[in-house]
Amino acid sequence: MLKKKKSKIINEKKVNLLDFNLTQMINFMLTLGEKKFRAIQVMNWIYKKYNTKFSKMSNLSNKLKKKLEKTANINLPECIKKQKSIDGTIKWNFLFGSDFIETIYIPEKKRATLCISSQVGCMLKCSFCATGSLGYKRNLLVSEIIGQIWFAINKIREYQFKNPALPKIKNIVMMGMGEPLLNLKNVLIAVDIILNSHSFNFSKNKVTLSTSGIVPAINKIAGKIDISLAISLHAPNDIIRNMIMPINKIYNINSLLSSVKNYLLYSKANKSIVTIEYVMLLNINDQLKHAKELINLLKDISCKINLIPWNPIKNSFYKCSNYTRIIIFFNYLKSNGYTVTIRKNRGSDIDAACGQLIGKIK
């Protein structure tokens, strides 16, 4: 007798539903032979009820639940360490495969900001930033970007049972590890999920993308997304910026500011104002002459300026500008009609402050 051949079981890789915006979720449901409205139901379970178990999605048919179990998952990042600063800032270290990234929760009195990462490492090598010393490893997937937010919001909800005064996350800033505009495809999908009413439903005024100045990408997103934009300028001229930010040798200040003007033509977020980020480095870019150059440089840009006292990193020769220098710089900008803020030092005792993220477990 001929033996019957055993049929081969094809183990197709399951898709992570955190990778899908609403349009992609609808398309996925259609491939399963389901109606479009099922996409909204599933997204509401994931992003409104913070449920990751298909079996508990009570308004789905059993047939659909079985299809989802076979073809999909909701795979969240693995948090392997949590650190809490004396000022209340929390740093979560996540493991993606063999790669580490960091996400920061920064509480204020009535609100909190979540600083998320978009890459493992960074290829731009800004000399004052710890992440740049890592070099570039890879882009984060959409699910790895979105997973940081899902985890943080859900975790803060848990903490609030013991500490009801702990503020909700009301702002998302892409200012963590990596250059968001060098992971453009995944970042655009992630932004869509962050803004969509069926997922996180953040206001465009509460979501900020910070870039070191990838000019073609800024031009590309103009008119496609409308969120707050922050520019890591950090210098009033090309000579200094070339020295501290190698990307300026490719896209100089004039080309960068030109792309910013173009973006603001289409953007209504943050009242069509861009944030200019400016790290204060002693004897590098912090003198009064630099402040004068800066106001001349920005005279045609609708902006506010955020001065950032430099946070120490290992093996760096930089020093932070002293308080007197920072105040003189601040007052000069303000006296010339600019809206100026000085960033608070948050989480520096756990290496969670601006420029300190390095994705390593200590």
Structural account:
The structure is a single chain. Helix content is 32%, strand content 20%. By secondary structure, it is an alpha/beta fold. The chain folds into two domains: 15-60 and 69-73, DNA polymerase, domain 1 (Orthogonal Bundle), CATH 1.10.150; 78-350, Alpha-Beta Barrel (TIM Barrel). The chain has a ten-stranded mixed β-sheet with strand order 3-4-5-6-9-10-11-12-13-14, with helices on one face. A two-stranded parallel ribbon has the order 1-2. Strand 3 (78-84) and strand 4 (90-96) form a beta hairpin. Residues 1-11 have low confidence and may be disordered. One of its GO terms (molecular function) is tRNA binding.
Main features:
alpha/beta; disordered N terminus; DNA polymerase, domain 1; 20% strand; 10-stranded mixed beta sheet
Secondary-structure blueprint of this entry?
Blueprint: E1 15-16, H1 22-31, H2 37-47, H3 62-71, E2 72-73, E3 78-84, E4 90-96, E5 99-107, E6 112-115, E7 119-121, E8 136-139, H4 142-162, E9 169-174, H5 184-195, E10 207-211, H6 215-221, E11 228-232, H7 238-244, H8 253-266, E12 274-280, H9 288-297, E13 303-309, H10 323-335, E14 339-342
Parallel strand pairs: 1-2, 6-9, 9-10, 10-11, 11-12, 12-13, 13-14
Antiparallel strand pairs: 3-4, 4-5, 5-6, 7-8
Organism: Buchnera aphidicola
InterPro entries: Aldolase_TIM (IPR013785), Methyltransferase_A (IPR040072), RlmN_N (IPR048641), RNA_MTrfase_RlmN (IPR027492), rRNA_lsu_MTrfase_RlmN/Cfr (IPR004383), rSAM (IPR007197), rSAM_sf (IPR058240)
Keywords: 4Fe-4S, Cytoplasm, Disulfide bond, Iron, Iron-sulfur, Metal-binding, Methyltransferase, rRNA processing, S-adenosyl-L-methionine, Transferase, tRNA processing
